[in-house]
Fold:
Amino acid sequence: MADAFAVLIEDLHEEHEALDAVVAVLDDAAWDVPTPASGWRVRDQIGHLAFFDQRAQMAITDTEAFVAERDAALEDFGSFSEEAGRLGREHTGLLLLSAWRTARALSLDAMSGVPESTRIPWYGPPMSPRSFVTARVMETWAHGQDVVDALHASRPATDRLRHIAFLGYSTRGWSYVVRGREAPSTPVRVELALPSGAAWAAGDESAPDRVSGAAEDFCLVVTQRRNVADTGLEVEGALAEEWMSIAQCFAGGPTTGPDAEG
Structure:
């Protein structure tokens, strides 16, 4: 567990660095470029990551304060959203980048030292350290995708996508529950190719319903950055098709991904 967790922590660090390389060279105007998320500029995406990296550290190192703030947020989500967006609105690009670098470094330090048995509070059910870090990998990559798409920038896919693929697979039930629907008990098989060419798979091998293709495409769908119709995924069976139409691997209320192009 310790070795695997250390690898996961390092993968989160590398995900930070990959996105940092994209935004570190931006001029002032580029920070204001709109991203595919309606109403969100590049600065808002990085501000969001910085804010929740700050809260990740707080959840571990000052749990009482985090829980109090979280509970207040649930009672007044509008005020919380306003506060969460403040960094992105009020900081210049260089200050925002500095704030994110500080927040993510402190959160990585906190996550690295958390005992395996800890249940870390968050904005949904408490999570194990491994699940908590995996969720941060997903958040960093997904919001980074919005930035990359907005800037037409390059951020090569890596095998770190295996963490997001795992989260996407394991939250199939959540994609239904968050919509007030009963999750099917019938399994769906997922078979993916990682960027290195290595295979990644999950689910009953004999399941007739299947999703297969590139790991990057699967991750884009479960993070709602692409419509499944705009990917190369092969989706077989009604249950697999239904899941891919509502897949949501992140917390919060039910949301839908982009419409198919064309």
Q: What stands out?
A: The chain has a mean pLDDT of 96. Residues 10 and 108 are 9 Å apart (CA to CA). The longest strand covers residues 189-193. The beta strands are 189-193, 199-202, 210-214, 234-236.
